[in-house]
DNA sequence: CTGCCGATGAACATCGTTGTCATCTAGTGC
DNA sequence: GCACTAGATGACAACGATGTTCATCGGCAG
């Protein structure tokens, strides 16, 4: 697994350091989105010495390399390991769990609207928020 | 028009003050989203004495009352006067113009996905980003 | 007109995030 | 293995957006 992580980091144009492996491993273990500060706290608590600055930089770098999705909530950003193909999200607002979705209907809507209004699409976003079965 | 503004403020449970009328008027004059700081700067430049704190408070209050939509970009939030019924957005990334959209297909997608996965929906978001005809 | 209570705004506090820089280390070439 | 260098780290400072305080002001009901 460390090998896989190294590969992923390599692909992102990053050196495989102990800290980055640690961050990636922590991300693999969760299906919700984490804040840089929270992640830093957890790693520290788990006895993994990683600097806050490094956590920020690693998360940002991985997000730039499209390994992570970024969610903005209450003025801070949370990161989550996400599939590499285009997708949308279904987020539980209670437990924070995130499920990835395909949405052909949305893709079609985007094309239709853009075409009709003469826009050149550069991106779009479509996410659903709710409470999952376990939490309600 | 000052009367209309007063009505809107009343509806939001806010007193109609000179500063709030000024902020509302400034929002009516633009179809893009503004930052609290930018708006504050513009009002100052236009000779309208309004405190930064007040601009923040007014924008937040109006957004809480669903008079404004909030966009988050680059770590800061921008506000825009928006229609009062549910809608989505088509945003030009060059000139900042925002168009409001209906999206039956999206509404249906939301219901379908939530139903199939056993979620109780609390909200959703769907916006398209691109370059408008004039800007390309 | 008066009084009350919400509203204002300057100063200050907070918080997430990014910049700095001396030090360290992964990965390369030998 | 070994030395070298570009990239990475982390304690700390700095920054900008936003929240809070509090003395003062003014909208608006009576
Ligand atoms: Zn849940
Ligand atoms: Zn899509
Ligand atoms: Zn445009
Ligand atoms: Zn909708």
Describe this structure in words.
The structure is a homodimer of 136-residue chains. With 136 residues, chain A is α+β, with helices and mostly antiparallel strands. The first copy, chain A, has 2 domains: 80 residues, Arc Repressor Mutant, subunit A (Orthogonal Bundle), CATH 1.10.10.10; 44 residues, Ferric-uptake regulator, C-terminal dimerisarion domain (Dna Ligase, domain 1), CATH 3.30.1490. Chain A has 5 helices and 6 strands, in the order ααβααββββαβ. In chain A, strands 1-3-2 form a 3-stranded antiparallel beta sheet. In chain A, β2 and β3 form a beta hairpin. In chain A, α1 packs across α2 and α3 crosses α4. The first copy, chain A, is globular. Chain A starts with a helix and ends in a 5-residue tail after the last strand. The relative contact order of chain A is 0.13. β6 of chain A pairs antiparallel with β6 of chain B, so a sheet runs across the interface. The complex binds zinc ion (ZN) (4 copies). The site of one zinc ion has 7 residues of chain A, from loops. The site of one zinc ion has 6 residues of chain A, from α5. The structure holds a DNA duplex (30 and 30 nucleotides).
């Amino acid at each position: 697994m460390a090998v896989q992580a190294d590969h992923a980091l390599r692909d992102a144009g990053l050196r495989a350091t102990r800290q980055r492996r640690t961050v990636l491993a922590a991300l693999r273990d969760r299906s919700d989105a984490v804040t840089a500060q929270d992640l830093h706290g957890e790693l520290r608590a788990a006895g993994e010495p990683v600097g806050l600055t490094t956590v920020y930089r690693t998360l940002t770098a991985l997000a730039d390399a499209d390994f992570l999705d970024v969610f903005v909530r209450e003025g801070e950003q949370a990161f989550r390991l996400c599939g590499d193909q285009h997708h949308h999200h279904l987020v539980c607002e209670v437990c924070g769990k995130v499920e990835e979705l395909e949405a052909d209907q949305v893709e079609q809507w985007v094309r239709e609207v853009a075409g009709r209004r003469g826009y050149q699409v550069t991106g779009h976003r479509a996410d659903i928020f709710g409470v999952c079965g376990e939490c309600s």
